[in-house]
UniProtKB/TrEMBL annotation, chains A, B:
GO BP annotations, alphabetical order: L-alanine catabolic process; photorespiration
Sequence ranges of Basic and acidic residues compositional bias: 1-20
A Pfam family assignment: Aminotran_1_2
Pathway: Photosynthesis; C4 acid pathway; Amino-acid degradation; L-alanine degradation via transaminase pathway; pyruvate from L-alanine: step 1/1
Annotated stretches, region: Disordered: 1-21
Name by which UniProt lists this protein: Putative alanine aminotransferase, mitochondrial
Keyword Plastid among record annotations: no
Alphabetic keyword roster: Aminotransferase, Pyridoxal phosphate, Transferase
A GO term, aspect molecular function: L-alanine:2-oxoglutarate aminotransferase activity
Length: 487, 487
């Protein structure tokens, strides 16, 4: 946490440097960010020296070959080169629907993609997002409650920055968690308060464990401000049921917590039993007192789903039941950032309002979307089956999102060898995997895990034509690793 | 500043809300952001009710009709729709140079604009930026010291976040200043320490006043961390001479301060006597001990200059003489944000490496660029001449950047009327101007000014075909305002 002004002043420089690493903001120094940590650095070195590297450490679909949706890119190209809209040859390159959509979207930006928009994003796109949410949930949504952002993480940071006032303020996070949460909570000087979903129950919520976490934190003087959850789960891949969401919402109500609903993987669902249901929908369907009182922020992005447009940085947050005065403060913070990038905003529009009707463009879009989803579904099975086929590993099925998070039952000798190397056992395993195969994963310790358990996270994103080779490499490595350290 | 954990805990909710405006992070609540403050809100209301509004409150060139550089947009369109590169009809719509450049740039992103890049931006573009700086300064630049960002403000915030540790830490800022600085310093819980360039000397640095500011701040217990300056000036429009930059650099060296050089308007120069000279160049030309010791961060952007691509959010920061350990911390913070948007990154590439040689594309680019610069230069004259032609106003010439910042010598009766309305006198003037003419400006109080002086900031961006009408409106309003409140 920050020191306050009445503490004794800190040194202004060291070794002639004001910007000395020992003299920077403590919260930055304390922040850890595992997704691009030691494994990533080693992988970069390996790639530099000419080794083949397979990046399954980060949900970056296009990096591993997922093609962008063609219609979206046609529209974006026209938005950036609007002088093509009236060009006689344009129809040779762009379907009519893309040209029409580009005209419509361009108008949302006052005809100028290069101008700042409102800091919350272009009003017409915020309306489209509201319409998308209404259609998804069967419940009303207000464009005034929607802020477009440069990817979902910006929205998450707005919420955490506003909520965290000092080192007493705590945010409940599932463990394992996507490390944006641990990093941002530390950057803003708050406390991450862990709660543990149950691996043996398919990573479902354990309400008793959550209650225990709250009780313990409060006994230690922590002021709980919010509860974060990720649905579908990252890194754990579970999809939450309506019943679990009802429990979470009732709990947030009883305990006075803001719900931070990371719903960025909502289109990535790989089974039929548990469809995605939004927290907003459940909250409204529960009726009063929950419907109009439980504070909720829901985050979405163009980076995941079937768009996979990570590099374009587009997303939105919906503020539900948030005090208008607090929303005004969030608007002010957004204003200091001027505006979310307009291409990312346009991509949000294309995500929430895909082409419809009986056109060739709409048919092509639907086919590309459905093929991509079906392929991811197959890959979710291949990946989890592969891990479950390994001796000393077990893996819940990836019901949704983009990751498998197998548990590794490492032999005592491997744990001892890791200790001698000064590494966490799962980091030790992942480093060996990288060295042997070029596969970059993230150790479970980067997300947090129950003490004494070890995991790794891999994406399910290798394309199907290389997936079998990927699985073979993994299997061969695992066998030899386990044999080497056999008890 | 933040409270620390040993203070008594703050309430968790009020009126049933955890996210109640009284219970948010103090630094957010205290932050003010004038560029989109009361004037902007009133302007939006006016626009909604159908009134004509002229937005000169913000440097948003395309909003007022500046056309984007065609070549840049051709390349960006191709980057987003790479399937066009091999299309037989592409050459009907795109010049060969744009197609070649798009292929080259696409390779910098591994062929995928939709993939995350490195958090510091694509290495090949960071190399282009380094080459641009070398050519500009005649001094070496290292791509490892260059981070691409979503606009310059992100880089400014990285530096301030790292430097500010607690409420004792102070950042020297020129007053008047671009309110990003005051807002970000407040958001990070630090102290803005004002120093006052001299209006009567064309807003040149007053070294004695700066020394006085430092002495006073230190006597009050403030630990000074950095000195920010804006060259060319915003809102004040001055261009700093080499001599002034030498003074600033020597001062930073003697006082152990990091220099934060906001050089985003470096291409916007409207006179020949004082060309833009970068702080990096002067620092290196000064030789030792300054050349390899003075810590400097220089910020640049695609939002200004002749590109005016505000909406695309692209920029960079060059870290000069910054400790490698501190740079690693900055890289970590950037990693939590995943990566700057790839379209903004590509736009930075196009800014630093425009088309060259004897092609039609290069000629067209050069013509469009030069016409735009010449037009801005004429407008800088028209605007400042207009203010100097008004009774009770005086205005330094806009030597660079995009703004005029006239001083208003308001009559006592106007000041009294403002007081009765509960407004700052310059805000009172600007609100009346908006109500009468639809012209949106920003009062000097939003930037800070010497006590008892009153100013406003307007951009010089109205296009030339409407500039005379703009000036007429201004003149008519001013005359009637001054007559109304005549002493």
């Amino acid at each position: 946490m920050s020191r306050s002004a009445h503490d004794s002043p800190r040194p202004a420089s060291k070794e002639g440097k004001a910007m000395h690493p020992d003299l920077l903001n403590d919260n930055i120094l304390k922040t850890q960010y595992a997704v691009r940590g030691e494994l990533y650095t080693r992988a970069q070195e390996l790639a530099k020296s000419g080794g083949e590297v397979i990046y399954t450490n980060i949900g970056n679909p296009q990096q591993l070959g997922q093609e962008p949706l063609v219609f979206n890119r046609q529209v974006l190209a026209l938005l950036l080169a609007p002088f093509l809209l009236d060009h006689p040859s344009a129809s040779a390159l762009f379907p009519r629907e893309a040209i029409d959509r580009a005209r419509e979207l361009l108008a949302a930006f006052g005809g100028r993609m290069g101008a700042y928009s409102d800091a919350r994003g272009a009003p017409a796109i915020r309306q489209q997002v509201a319409a998308f949410i209404e259609a998804r949930d069967g419940q009303p949504a207000d464009p005034e409650d929607i802020y477009l952002t440069d990817g979902a993480s910006v929205g998450v940071k707005y919420a955490l920055n506003a909520l965290i006032r000092d080192g007493n303020d705590g945010i409940l996070c599932p463990i394992p968690q996507y490390p944006l949460y641990s990093a941002a909570i530390q950057l803003f000087g708050g406390k991450l308060v862990p709660y543990y979903p149950e691996e043996d129950a398919g990573w479902d919520l354990n309400l008793e464990a959550l209650r225990g976490a709250v009780k313990k934190a409060r006994a230690e003087g922590t002021v709980l401000r919010a509860l974060a959850f990720i649905n579908p789960g990252n890194p754990t891949g579970q999809v939450l049921t309506r019943e679990t969401l009802r429990e979470l919402i009732a709990f947030a109500h009883d305990e006075g917590l803001v719900l931070l609903a990371d719903e960025v993987y909502q289109p990535n669902i790989y089974q039929d039993e548990k469809p995605f249901v939004s927290a907003k929908r459940v909250l409204r369907e529960m009726g009063e007192p929950w419907a109009s009182s439980v504070e909720l922020a829901s985050f979405h992005t163009v980076s995941k789903g079937m768009l996979g447009e990570c590099g374009l940085r587009g997303g939105y947050v919906e503020w539900v039941n948030i005090h208008p005065g607090a929303q005004a403060e969030l608007y002010k913070v957004a204003s200091v950032n001027l505006c979310p990038n307009t291409v990312g905003q346009a991509t949000v529009s294309l995500m929430v309002a895909p082409p419809t009707g009986d056109s060739e463009a709409a048919r092509q879009y639907a086919k590309q979307y459905e093929d991509s989803l079906a392929s991811l579904r197959r890959r979710a099975h291949v990946m989890t089956d592969a891990f479950n086929g390994l001796e000393g590993a077990s893996c819940n099925f990836t019901e949704g999102a983009m990751y498998s998070f197998p548990r590794l039952h490492l032999p005592a000798k491997a744990i001892q060898a890791a200790k001698e190397a000064g590494k966490d056992p799962d980091t030790f395993y992942c480093l060996a995997l990288l060295a042997d195969t070029g596969i970059v994963t993230v150790p479970g310790s980067g997300f947090g895990q129950v003490e004494g358990t070890f995991h790794l996270r891999t994406t399910i994103l290798p394309q199907e034509d290389v997936m079998h080779e990927f699985v073979d490499k993994l299997r061969t490595f695992h066998k030899s690793f386990m044999a080497k350290y056999k008890d």
